[in-house]
Amino acid sequence: MQFSLLLLQTAAPPSGGITGALGQALPLVIMIPLFYFLFFVPMQRQKKQQAAMLKGLQNGQTVVTTGGIVGTIIAVNGDDTLILRVKPDNIKLQVARSSVTSLVSSDEAKK
Q1: Residue 76 bridge partners (DSSP)
Q2: What is 58-110's CATH topology?
């Protein structure tokens, strides 16, 4: 008996109509565009920059692959492969163009 009285006392009165529904949906309506602009727009921008970097690869540039290999491009074969020279033994490796993650600046390459 006491438990049912306690439940009746703590139950919130029903909120009124449209203002209640709008008040509950408003945070969700605000969060969806915010989530889009905070996560998807930067990801799309980064994807475009990566594609432009891969398209502009040239001989003589020093690159880092997804496997962590640092090498200098000595040949660009077609649209999808590169030949890298890897120090210290000047080993030549053929890698996929898509495996290149970043360019190494000339200051870092000299070190």
Answers
A1: 82
A2: SH3 type barrels. (2.30.30)
Return the structure tokens found at 54.
Answer: 């891969």
Torsion of CA 61, 102, 63, 97, to 10 degrees: -90
The pTM of this model reads 0.65
Beta-carbon count within 10 A of 32 CB: 9
Q: 108: which 2 tokens?
A: 């870092």
Phi, psi of 6, deg, nearest 5: -65, -40
Residue with tokens 């660009």: 76
Say whether 101 sits in a helix, a strand or coil: strand
- Give the Cα separation of 103 and 109 in Å (integer): 10
Task: Say if residues 43 and 37 touch (Cβ distance below 8 Å).
Answer: no
Per the prediction, the chain carries an average pLDDT of 84
